[in-house]
Amino acid sequence: MTDVLLPVRTPPARRAVPTTPTGRDRDRAVDALRAAAIAGVVLGHWVVTALVAEGGTVRTASPLQFLPGLTPITWVFQSLAVFFLVGGHVAARGHAAARARGTAYGPWLAARLARLFRPVAAVLVLWAVAAAGMLASGADLTTVHTLLKLALSPLWFLLVFAALTAATPLVARCHPLWPLAAVAAVDAVRFGLGGPAWLGWVNVAAGWLVPFALGASRPRSPFGADRRTGWALLLGGAAATVVLVAGCGYPAAMVGVPGAPVSNLSPPTLAAVTFGLAQCGLAFLLAPSLRRVLRRPAAWAGVTFVNRYAMTVFLWHQTALMAVTAGLLWAGPLPGLHTAPDGTAWLAARLTWMPLFALALAVCWTAFRHHEQHRAGARGRPVQRAGVSAPPPLR
């Protein structure tokens, strides 16, 4: 997909519509799916991630452990498969376009990985300084470990996404059924034959290769052009997931739940992959409607804005949550912020904190957005690049 360079000081929402390419160069449905997933993951993390302050330490907890009725929200917010589907489609299309222009594989890959990893440096530096400061001030080691893990553990996604992006020329020739069969074989050995638990980590690559390869399979076709494929994926993936959950003992939650013997996400299971295929089918079916909606300038401007700062939102939204939580420790245990997520009252209280999380994220965005968009233009001027290609995960 073609990127557009915009002056840094240009208000992105106002300039998005007239300066973002249309037609074959940009599929607005792809941008919309990515933007919706970004918003969903942020809200999902803010709902299911609790920081409990007790006895001078801070630990993580999840309302899913105490409120199994919240399980359906994981079916909405755990949208990794759609991220990899869109990522595979964009990578394969971009590589094909680069080859047509005569651009070699090396420069093409370097440009994509630079956009992916450039903003990470600011996160690593800030948290290195913060960790050193907390330890120097006598903070509990468990608390420091908890905060660092929460802030940095989602970065595993970038490594997997980068590896699959680097393998795009090979992935474009890979039928999605091949890695799907590998995931099924791994789970059969793990759960059916009592194989070692470490074998499941093979699915980190194989599991997310399934939607990535699905997205990369037809780089020159419009996203979601084949509605029959969309219905087959949606109905077949949903049916397979129901069978695996109801008949084979897989968890119903599509994210990890503390204390559960099996996580569908760490590492990915066959149920997570079949559920992801159902999500991919739904994405294909929604694509035509999204294109129609995004003919409206206001809707397209909002989607473009979110995509332009996707990495900034991804990398800093958990820091925003932790900043609010830590900043109000002086006020005592506040419901929904410092207390255990053990009931519906906690959930109701947590929802009231969401605007403050959003405000903290806006502050982070203001401070760090230039690490994502700041580049040297043709005349040495800073410019902005529209169309960020890296989505965040929900753990």
Defining traits:
single chain, 395 residues, mainly alpha, three-stranded antiparallel β-sheet, two-stranded antiparallel sheet, 16 helices, globular, disordered N terminus
Summarize the topology.
Elements: E1 5-7, H1 12-19, H2 28-48, E2 50-54, E3 57-61, H3 71-77, H4 80-101, H5 105-117, H6 120-136, H7 141-152, H8 156-166, H9 168-171, H10 177-192, H11 202-216, H12 227-248, H13 270-293, H14 297-308, H15 310-327, H16 344-373, E4 375-376, E5 382-385
Antiparallel strand pairs: 1-5, 2-3, 4-5
Helix pairs in contact: 1-14, 2-3, 2-4, 2-13, 2-14, 2-15, 4-11, 4-13, 5-8, 6-7, 7-15, 10-11, 11-13, 12-13, 15-16
Widest sheet: strand ordering:
1-5-4
Radius of gyration: 21 Å
Strand content: under 5%
* Mean pLDDT value: 85
Structural class: mainly alpha
Unreliable runs: 1-24, 376-395
Spell out the helices and strands N to C: EHHEEHHHHHHHHHHHHHHEE
Count of individual beta strands: 5
Number of DSSP helical runs: 16
Tell me, what's the shape?
A: globular
Task: Tell me the distance between the termini.
Answer: 28 Å
Proportion in helices: 55-70%
For the sheet with most strands, the description reads: 3 strands, antiparallel
Briefly summarize what is shown.
By secondary structure, the chain is mainly α. The chain is 64% helix and 5% strand.
Describe the structure.
The chain is mainly alpha-helical. Helices cover 64% and strands 5% of the residues. The protein is built from 16 helices and 5 strands. Strands 1-5-4 form a 3-stranded antiparallel β-sheet, with helices on one face. The chain has a two-stranded antiparallel sheet with strand order 2-3. A hairpin with a 2-residue loop joins strand 2 (50-54) and strand 3. The chain is globular, with a radius of gyration of 21 Å. The model is unreliable at 1-24 and 376-395 (pLDDT under 50).
